[in-house]
């Protein structure tokens, strides 16, 4: 604890910064050039600091300067002080960043991406509020066009020139059926095996449906959709009760497969790859940029678990 009675020198942050820079550069001249100061001005800052420290901090020689023993002791403390001051500034800045950020996302990603995003913002940027809307890829693209959301995270269908489009990950698809089902019994299922299977898939417009039907035409595979349902919960329920099959990425079925509720087989020859993208209409709001940056970092961990 710092005593209220003890008089402490008024350590000047600019002086401490000049001291640290000089110690790192080993040259007063170099620091003066970098800071746009005269060499005598830098020397005065250092001289005043040496008075407060009651000892020499540098040994001057023809090649520049080097720290004295006292200087070496003080250097890490000066660095720590500057970092602490920066942390104070960061806290103040973070608490004063405010704004509502509207995010539209496919439902299967809400828990993996938006739940940790919420708690990160609550701790670090309490002034930023989130509005979360779940929807299918086609709906998200419509909301983006109408500027009803600031960030959209759908399955990518095509490049839309009206906003930034950043690929977050590429996910293989799995044919999902009931436990004990023979079609999904193996680890992999060839794409040709999908022909005439009763499928429960998202309604059109759907980037995945478009890709699936285009590939079906190329490879002579008949895609038989017996029900359209945007709800992943309903798709999995129908599959679990042997009403048909659905096709989903691993993160959407991982828990049910591990709990023995569903059975899944990776589709191969060729693979069906879903591409998740993050889309933003033009928006320079700092709150939106902060949220986008954090979402990108959260997807780094998501890719390690689910991309391959």
Low-confidence stretches: none
What name is given to the CATH topology of the largest domain?
D-Maltodextrin-Binding Protein, domain 2
The beta-strand count equals: 12
Mean pLDDT: 87
Share of residues in strands: 15-25%
CATH architecture of the largest domain: 3-Layer(aba) Sandwich
Large-scale geometry: elongated
Question: Helix content range of the residues, please?
Answer: 40-55%
What's the CATH class label of the largest domain?
Alpha Beta
Terminal CA distance: 53 Å
CA-based gyration radius? 30 Å
Q: Number of folding domains?
A: 3
Order of helices and strands: HHHEEHEHEHEEEEHEHEHEEH
Largest sheet: 5 strands, mixed
Q: Helix/strand/pairing class, anyone?
A: alpha/beta
Structure description:
With 308 residues, the protein is α/β, with parallel strands linked by helices. The chain has three domains: 13-91, Arc Repressor Mutant, subunit A (Orthogonal Bundle), CATH 1.10.10.10; 99-168 and 276-306, Periplasmic binding protein-like II (D-Maltodextrin-Binding Protein, domain 2, 3-Layer(aba) Sandwich); 170-274, D-Maltodextrin-Binding Protein, domain 2 (3-Layer(aba) Sandwich). The protein contains ten helices and twelve strands. It has helices at residues 13-25, 28-35, 39-53, 69-96, 110-124, 137-145, 207-219, 232-240, 254-258, 286-306; strands spanning 58-61, 64-67, 99-105, 128-134, 151-153, 164-178, 188-190, 198-201, 224-228, 246-249, 262-268, 273-280. Strands 6, 7, 10, 11 and 12 form a five-stranded mixed beta sheet that branches. The longest helix has 28 residues, at 69-96. It is elongated, with a radius of gyration of 30 Å. The model has no long low-confidence stretch (mean pLDDT 87).
């Amino acid at each position: 604890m710092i005593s209220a009675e003890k008089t402490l020198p008024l350590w000047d942050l600019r002086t401490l910064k000049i001291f640290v820079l000089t110690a790192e550069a080993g040259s007063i001249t170099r620091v003066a050039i970098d800071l746009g100061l005269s060499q005598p001005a830098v020397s005065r800052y250092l001289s005043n600091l040496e008075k407060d420290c009651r000892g020499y901090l540098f040994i001057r020689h023809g090649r520049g300067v080097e720290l004295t023993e006292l200087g070496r002791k003080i250097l890490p403390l000066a660095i720590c002080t500057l970092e602490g001051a920066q942390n104070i500034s960061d806290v103040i800045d973070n608490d004063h960043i405010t704004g509502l950020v509207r995010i539209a996302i496919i439902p299967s990603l809400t828990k993996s991406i938006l739940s940790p995003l919420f708690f990160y913002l609550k701790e670090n940027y309490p002034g930023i509020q989130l509005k979360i809307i779940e929807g299918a890829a086609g709906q998200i693209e419509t909301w983006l066009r109408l500027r009803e959301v600031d960030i959209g995270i759908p399955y990518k269908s095509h490049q839309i020139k009206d906003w930034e489009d950043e690929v977050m990950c590429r996910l293989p698809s799995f044919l999902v059926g009931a436990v004990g089902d023979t079609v999904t019994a193996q680890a992999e299922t060839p794409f040709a095996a999908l022909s005439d299977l009763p499928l429960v898939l998202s309604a059109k417009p759907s980037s995945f449906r478009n890709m699936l039907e285009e590939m079906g035409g190329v490879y002579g595979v008949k895609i038989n959709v017996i029900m359209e349902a945007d709800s992943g919960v309903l798709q999995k329920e129908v599959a679990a009760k042997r009403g048909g099959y659905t096709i989903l990425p691993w993160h959407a079925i991982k828990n049910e497969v591990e709990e023995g509720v569903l059975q899944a087989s990776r589709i191969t020859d060729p693979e069906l790859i879903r591409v998740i993208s993050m889309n933003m209409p033009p928006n320079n709001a700092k709150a939106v940029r902060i949220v986008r940056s954090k979402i990108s970092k959260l997807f780094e961990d998501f890719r390690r678990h689910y991309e391959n």
